[in-house]
Fold this protein.
Amino acid sequence: MTKTSPGPLATSHLLLSLERGEFSAFSISEAGFVLSREGHLFPGLKIGSLAVDTLFFLDGLEMTIEALLANELASFKLPNVRMMVSEKIERDYTFELTSSPGKDGNQFCVYVWDVTETAIAQQAIVHRHNSVNLENERLEEEKVNTEELMRSQSHFLANISHELRTPLTLALGNCDLLRDQTVYLDEQARNSCLTDIRDNAEELLGFVSDLLDYSKIDAENLVLIDETVDVGAELDRLTQQFRRDALDRRLSLKSQVPPTPIKLRAERRRIRQILTNLLTNALKFTPKGGTVSLGVTDKENGIALFVKDTGLGLTADEMAQIGKPFIKFEKHPLHNQLESNGLGLALTKKLIEAHDGEMVVQSNVGEGTHVTALFPKERRL
C-alpha cells in the first residue's frame, strides 16, 4: 500500500485509531481482490479474498471504482453505512475510496472509520435538539392557551358583571324610589315599581340558573334523569303558554304535531328548556305580522324538534358564532321585553348535545331561521 507522510499529530491519531480498532485501510486490485490491509476492522477481509464478499456495497460502485482507477476521480467518500458485525450487533462506518497506482497495475484504497459512537452522539444531539424544540413548542402552545384562557375569563367576567349589574341597578332604583318619603307614589305607581323589581329579580334568577346549568355541562357534571317525554304534549303546552305573548306582538304561532304520539327518552325539564329558549329567540327577532312555528318530525335517523320563524335571519358570520356563550348579535331584538342574556343558544346547544343530539341551524338574512334539535334514533321510544 502506498504510504504518505502525515504530520506527527495525524500519525499519532491514526496509530491510536488502529490500536483501538476504530480505523482500517485496505488496498484492492482492479479485479477486486484484497492486496493488503492494516487495522482490525472486518477481520473476515483476508488478503487475496474478494472485497465485495465482505464490503457488499462495493457492488454498487462499479462506475465510481472505474473512475478512480482511471484517475478521473481523486477520491470518493460514502455516507455512513450501517453493517452487521455479528448476529445481533450493528456498527456504523464511513468509507473513503481513493486511487493508488501500484507496481502490478492500478489499484484503489479503502479507508474505513468506525463512527458508531460519533453517530450515537450525533443522534443524541439531534434527539435533544428535537426534544428542546418540542418542549419550546409545548411551552409556546401553553402560553397561547393561557393567554386565550385569560382573555376568555376576562370576557366571561365582564359579561357576567354586565348581566348582573343591569337588573340590580334597575331593582335598586325602584327600591330607592319606594323608600323616598319626599316622592308621592299612588297605588298604581307603587305596584309598577314592585312589578319592575320582581321582573328584574326573575331575570337575575333566570340568568343565574342558566349560568349554573352551562357551568355544569361545561364541567361534565350535569346528570340527566331520563324519562318518557311525550313530545307532542310538550309542544302543545308550550304553544298555549306563549300564544298570548305572540298575539300581543302580532305574531302567528303555529304548532305542527303529528297525530301519532312521538315519545323520547330524555329529561322532561331539559326538553322544555331547549324548546323555550328556541321559541323565545324566534319571537324576539320576528317582525310584526310574521310567523313562528314549532313542531316535531320522526325521521329515519332520529327525532327532530324544530322551531322556525320568518324573522330577520342570520348572516354567515353570525351563524359561525352560534353556540358561543354571551354572544349577542348586532341586530337589536324587535321586542325589547324579550332581551336575552346571551346564554340561551349556547346553553341550548349544550343541552341538546348532553342528550347525544345535534343542533342544526339554517338561516338566510331577511328570510328567517330554522333551528332543529335532532336526537338520535336510540332515544326514540
User: Anything to note?
Assistant: The first strand starts at residue 23 and ends at 29.
